[in-house]
Amino acid sequence: MIAAVVMAAGLGTRMRPLTERYAKAVLPVDGRPVVVQLLHELATARCPRVTVVIGHLGEQVQRLLGDGRAFGLALRYVRQPQPDGSADAVSRAGEEPPYLVLAADTVFPAGAIASFARSAPPAGAIAVRRQPERPSARVRAGVVERVLDPDGPGPFSGAPLWAVGKPVHERLCLDAPPWELGNAFQAAIDAGERIAAVEIGPTRDLTAPLDVLQENFPYLHHL
To answer: Is the residue at 62 inside a domain?
Structure first.
């Protein structure tokens, strides 16, 4: 069993105007808030403790999730005062490695989080996918060589699901702000650490207002 950090503090700039009124994490896929679906999957993965990092409109997330008992989870909240990057959000959670990190704007295939947690080696892992297409990660023989491949496109892109081991954890927030989790992983890779690439199935992401329509009214994909 492994603890988890759910990042739900972002401003959701690309999702405006929806995120001017709603926290991005409470927006739905198939009519259900993304963050609710993530917590059900974390319960399936038997995570003993989940920390939700909140910020912009964070009270909406707290009202929706409560104390976590509805999901069978021990849930706590930590606030990120400023949008200073994903590594800053993870650092504020105060977890000791190893732990999982997820972004609350993506729905993963059923069981993918549990399978990923079982597959992750001690140093850390990044979930990779073939769909949807995103900036490429360089992967060779199941190992991440570059979090972002400048020579892309390649067959894989990183998904917002990570396993953070000690080599990554101790490199959080060592660069200049905004501090990003990908930079901590790349620093660990550059230091010779083996970071696994664990392939998962296609994900469903909310990155623009149109995604909310398409992920809740599937027939719109064919218009």
So the answer is: yes
pLDDT band at 80 (very low <50, low <70, confident <90, very high): very high
Please indicate, yes or no, if residue 223 is contained in any of the structural domains. Answer: no
Please state, in angstroms and rounded to a whole number, the distance separating the CA atoms of residues 116 and 105: 18
Q: Which of 157, 92, 84, 85 is nearest to 126 (CA)?
A: 157
Is 17 among the domain residues? yes
d(C-alpha 91, C-alpha 100), whole Å: 13
Amino acid at 88: D
Query: What's the CATH number where 200 sits?
Result: 3.90.550.10
pLDDT at 208: 79
**Which domain does 150 fall in, by range?**
3-214
Residue 222 in domain: no
| Tens-digit pLDDT profile for residues 159-179 | 899 999 999 999 997 777 779
In the chain, the amino acid numbered 174 is L
The string of DSSP letters for the chain reads --EEEEEE----GGGTTGGGTS-GGG-EETTEEHHHHHHHHHHHTT-S-EEEEE-TTHHHHHHHHTTSGGGT--EEEEE-SS---HHHHHHHHTPPSSEEEEETTEEPPTTHHHHHHHH--TTEEEEEESSS--SB-EEETTEEEESS-TT---S-EEEEEEEE-HHHHTTTT-SSSSP-HHHHHHHHHHTT--PEEEE----EE--SHHHHHHHHSGGGGG-
Please state the domain count of the chain.
Answer: 1
- What pLDDT, in 10s, does the model give residues 190-215? 999 999 999 998 888 887 777 777 77
